[in-house]
Amino acid sequence: MASMLSQLSPSVTNQIRMDHTHVLTAFHQYEIGSSARVKRGLVDHVCLAIEIHAQLEEEIFYPALRAVADSEILRKATPEHDEMRGLIARLRYMPVDDPVFNDTFFALMRHVMHHVADEETLLLPAAERLLPEQLGALGAEMSRRRLELAGPRAPEIAGSVARSLSLGAMLAAGSAALAGAHLLTRHRTADRLSAARSRSSRLGS
Ligand SMILES: [Fe+2]
Ligand SMILES: [Fe+2]
Which residue ranges does the record assign to the Hemerythrin-like domain (predicted)? Predict the structure, then answer.
């Protein structure tokens, strides 16, 4: 199993980018005028994806990067996750028709977008510069841990998809990614982009 994971897993940085894309794509489906059922399904799905992603980064990615780098962005990454967790806890128990439901979700997504921008423009490139030999092994470790975390929450994942039936196809694809189905479809495009990025960064240095 361990060797299969290391062969099939995207690198840790590409896995993080894929998670970000998934969360932002789900957010872009959110409309104030949608039914309560669709909004509940989308919000629950986004919240679960953020929770699993944040835990994976805190257990695997941040410690690896901290071992070779120190920066304000890296130090504030986990406290920012905690702010997101606070908003997620409020959303979980808030009825969709609460007057501040939309604003609370938008506040969460403002935090997410700011945080994702810092990670994608600073932390991921730093990891690719400083840890090039470890990205594959860290990706395999992240895939293994993802399966552990997503497995017990499969009913939640399925429930959020079912509640937003009109978005079912998109969320079903996202749920598969959340649960680690990328292991079965190696992301050659992402790997090619990564190789091109590192080639251009070498040319630029
Ligand atoms: Fe993060
Ligand atoms: Fe992230």
Answer: 13-127
- In contact, 49 and 150? CB cutoff 8 Å: no
Provide the percentage of residues in the chain whose pLDDT is more than 70: 75
Express each pLDDT in 98-110 by its tens digit: 999 999 999 999 9
Cα of 147 from ligand 1 centre, angstroms: 19
Going from the Cα of 16 to the center of ligand 2, the distance in angstroms, rounded, reads 6
Total number of domains constituting the chain = 1
Distance between Cα 108 and ligand 1 center (Å):
13
Instruction: Give the ligand at the shortest distance from the Cα of 15.
Output: 2
